[in-house]
Amino acid sequence: MELRITTGSAKNKKLAVPDIPGFRAVQEIAKSSLFSIIGDKVEGAVCLDLFAGSGNLGIEALSRGAAWCDFVDGDKDSAEAIRKNVENCGFFEKSSVTLKNAVKYVAGTETKYDLIFMDPFYNDTSHTHLFKNLGNSLKDGGVIFYFHEDGVDITQILEKTLFEVVDTRKFGVSVYDVIKRKRGY
Fold first, then answer.
1. Is 122 helix (H, G, I), strand (E, B) or coil?
2. 3 state DSSP class of 116
3. Structure confidence by residue, pLDDT tens digits, 53-112
């Protein structure tokens, strides 16, 4: 599997992929779609890449002008691959890599983010608790992009949280939801 950055200052840089069974990266077409939704809002944004894997989404954001990205993954091989990729793309000074469970990270961080990318393993769908904690981590007007397999009941996951789905895009078996704070929250 070959991953690369598609646009910006690190365009065409290849990314190291962690050697993890079941690892799958966001397809290039889905990544392009996501960043066309974000548009200019990426410039100067503070980003969080949860379940970061190779760091593909966060590094793409940095390449397109984001000010900062925190990469979080609970797997040692992923954290190593992300460090290598951040260094290779020249974003060491604009990022941090944390080896930690996503729920624990979000529960403990005081940073507020403009953009949050979440691309967990598709069989890991118990994210209600994570979304409840994300309410403290998303800036007003911020956006969460949540990747999952087709058929996941996102309304059930978001029940009793501050969030709602405002758009959904499907690419084969992959789906991502664009999630924002409900009006009035």
1. coil
2. strand
3. 999 999 999 999 999 999 999 999 999 999 999 999 999 999 999 999 999 999 999 999
Give all strands (DSSP E) within the chain, no chain letters.
3-4, 14-15, 46-50, 68-73, 95-99, 113-118, 138-149, 163-171, 174-181
Give residue-wise pLDDT tens across range 131-149: 988 988 999 999 999 998 8
**65: which residues sit within 8 A by CB, 6+ positions away?**
8, 42, 43, 44, 45
pLDDT value of residue 125 = 59
Please state, as a whole number, how many other Cβ atoms lie within 10 Å of the Cβ of residue 80.
16
Task: Determine whether 50 is exposed, middle or buried from the number of CB atoms within 10 Å of its CB (0-12, 13-18, 19+).
Answer: buried
Go through the domains of the chain in sequence order and give each one's CATH number.
Answer: 3-181 (3.40.50.150)
Q: What CA–CA distance (Å, rounded) separates 134 from 124?
A: 17
Give the sign of the dihedral formed by CA 128, CA 131, CA 117, CA 105.
Answer: negative
- What are 177's two structure tokens? 């939801």
